[in-house]
Design a protein that fits this description.
432 residues; alpha/beta; 13 helices; 32% helix
């Protein structure tokens, strides 16, 4: 079926459905703050909110606009898990102490985010209707069962369901069976970020948009952050740039691989069509190496996403393949009119863990959510704020680690497209 698609590329539906004007200024002149936060996405805004609530003076600077990067370009699924198959794999990486701290934090991260939204009455279309992870092959199902049992012993609360139950919950027969995680859900990510930004400003925090930090120098006990038309002097700096990290912090951009998820959104669909898809409002993703993920919106739109590509001009691509996959999974969408297509960059780490760094005195860095950033960015934001307020490492769920460039970073970065093609082939062969 030919694709009905009239969207301008790189136009997130989330941005059009939200009011992006928070009254932010562009940095001009000289300013001071206790803490300067670089990056106005989920991580930076949560850190700023925690700090302002503690009475700390905060200035948030972003090269673009609030949530203009990954936070406003995500699929908006709130998944309460780290991307690890087994607890043993995670324990081997973390050691017992941090494993015992991070696992309950990660498993409870979705609950914590929805509690935070309710506590502050953020209007962001939040719903905790559960997450379906569907299995594309018999082998994937066997692994999912074993892994779910292992995580359930740690309190994950997953339920294994068969083909007919998955069909009833999802509306697709493309999968063998799956796992239901009741703690999962969804938010309108741009609305959430904007609500957080407004909360920061209400607490006295300053947010500067279109204010790229061009350089950063230590002067005595303070850091001077220089922009094109102004500067901020701060005792501490939090860097929360994730997949958009550049050369401001040495080696940081080479410690991650910037991947490009893409999404498409339909026009509102007729009740007879949308009623067949995710009828109880679950979010969904699958077990393939190149995953799909999807959700339905309160206005009866469908949002469908997967891995895409990004041109040198930052224009996302891969929508034709995404459309074919959407029809494979949900043939009910054969007549749908797709109105929006967008993508952004997320940070993938070599160990698939979020990374918290302290490369210099007074500088903290948090990034690397590996596609699970809506919930885990909130955990990181809280951890960064706690460290900035003087909490010891033993009181936070993430270890402070050294920035380490990924081996053969340039080669791995250039090879992402080939790797994705090969992984798609493996997924296809397993699904036959």
């Amino acid at each position: 079926m030919a694709m009905s698609f009239d969207a301008r590329l790189n136009r997130p539906f989330w941005a059009e459905a939200a009011n992006p004007d928070i009254g932010a200024n562009t940095l001009a002149g000289a300013h001071e703050a206790d803490v300067a936060v670089i990056g106005a996405g989920f991580t930076g805004l949560r850190a700023a909110h925690e700090l302002t609530r503690a009475g700390t003076s905060v200035a948030v600077l972003d090269a673009g606009t609030v949530a203009g990067g990954a936070s406003g370009r995500t699929g908006g699924q709130v998944n309460p898990m780290l991307p690890f198959n087994t607890p043993d794999q995670l324990r081997a990486l973390l050691g017992d102490a941090f494993f015992d701290r991070l696992v309950p934090t990660a498993l409870g991260s979705a609950d914590a985010l929805f509690d935070y939204i309710r506590a502050h009455q953020f209007d962001c279309d939040a719903r905790q209707n559960g997450w379906l992870r569907v299995c594309h092959s018999a082998g994937a199902l066997r692994n999912a069962k074993a892994n779910a049992e292992a995580w359930n012993r740690l309190g994950a609360g997953m339920e294994i369901v068969g083909r007919e139950d998955i069909f009833a919950l999802s509306g697709t027969r493309a999968y063998h069976a799956g796992i239901v995680t009741p703690r999962g859900g969804a938010v309108q990510p741009m609305k959430l970020a904007l609500a957080m930004a407004r909360a920061v400003r209400q607490q006295g925090g300053r947010i500067y948009e279109h204010s790229a930090v061009l350089g950063m120098d230590r002067q005595g006990a303070r850091w001077i952050l220089r922009g094109a038309q102004g500067q901020v002097s701060a005792a501490q700096v939090i860097v929360a740039t994730n997949g958009y990290s550049g050369d401001l912090i040495p080696k940081l951009s080479k410690s991650i691989i910037a991947a490009t998820p893409i999404q498409m959104a339909t026009d509102p669909l007729p009740g007879g069509v949308i009623g067949q898809i995710l009828p109880q409002g679950h979010t969904i993703s699958d077990s393939r190496r190149v995953i799909m993920y999807a959700r339905r919106e309160p206005d009866n739109r469908m949002v469908y996403g997967s891995h895409g590509s990004l041109s040198a001009a930052n224009v996302p691509g891969g929508f034709k393949a995404l459309h074919r996959d959407a029809l494979r999974v949900f043939p009910q969408l054969k007549d749908a009119h797709w109105t929006h297509g967008w993508g952004g960059r997320v940070a993938v780490t070599d160990d698939h863990l979020p990374h918290l760094h302290q490369p210099q005195p007074g500088v903290l860095v948090g990034l690397g959510y590996n596609g699970r950033g809506v919930a885990m960015s909130q955990v990181m934001g809280q951890a960064l704020a706690a460290r900035a307020l003087g909490r010891p490492e033993g009181d936070i769920p993430l270890p402070v680690t050294e920035i380490k460039p990924i081996f053969a970073h340039a080669i791995q970065t250039r090879g992402v497209g080939t790797a994705v093609w090969f992984l798609r082939l493996l997924d296809y062969l397993e699904s036959r």
